[in-house]
Amino acid sequence: MYRTQQAIKIIKIGHPTLRLIAEPFTIPEIKHESTKILIEKLIKKMNSDNGVGIAAPQINVSKRLFIAGWSTPKPKIKPLAISAFFNPEIKFLSDKMIDSWESCLSVPEYIGLVKRCEKIEMNYLDIGGAPRKIIAVGYSAIVLQHENDHLNGIVYIDRLN
């Protein structure tokens, strides 16, 4: 399904895959061994680049998958276990928008101010293909929205204030 022998390389802004609406995963695809290897490589790349999220389109795989989370403590930020999110769907639970200084592995050396919804509900499939739901507030909500944007051909610089 995916080339699992190659090292992962982050594609940069200007690459056409970053502007595509990614294709959903089927349950058999989620459970395929190559997808498990892909997840492991995404997590390794995210951690080695000190990220808190990475989406499949960022490595030139136009599928609806992202990894998000952090294991190291962050001041005033609730932890989020590193997880795979397949075929996520967002529901905004608040009218309150919060400012977020964001950066991106695909837009190196830049940072920008973006407004994001403070509280969201995300429905997704986990690594076993089971439906899951998470309610995210604050920083967690920001990260999930940022990564989900990648699945819809949106990069944070499109949302700059």
Characterise this structure.
The protein contains 3 helices and 7 strands, in the order H-H-E-E-E-E-E-E-E-H. With 161 residues, the protein is of the alpha+beta class. The strands form 2 sheets. Strands 1-2-3-6-7 form a 5-stranded antiparallel β-sheet, sandwiched between helices. A two-stranded antiparallel ribbon has the order 4-5. The model has no long low-confidence stretch (mean pLDDT 94).
Secondary-structure-derived class: alpha+beta
Residue stretches low in confidence (pLDDT < 50, at least 5 long) are none
Helix residue percentage: 10-25%
Count of DSSP E strands?
A: 7
Strand order of the largest sheet: 1-2-3-6-7
Measured on Cα atoms, how large is the radius of gyration? 15 Å
Largest sheet: 5 strands, antiparallel
* Helix-strand string: HHEEEEEEEH
Percent in strands: 25-35%
Global morphology: globular
What is the residue-averaged pLDDT?
Answer: 94
SS summary, helix count: 3
What is the distance, rounded to the nearest whole angstrom, between the alpha carbons of the first and last residues? 39 Å
Short description:
This protein has 161 residues and is an alpha+beta fold. Helix content is 21%, strand content 34%.
Give the secondary structure arrangement, pairings included.
Blueprint: H1 27-31, H2 33-48, E1 53-55, E2 65-70, E3 80-92, E4 97-104, E5 107-117, E6 119-125, E7 131-137, H3 139-151
Antiparallel strand pairs: 1-2, 2-3, 3-6, 4-5, 6-7
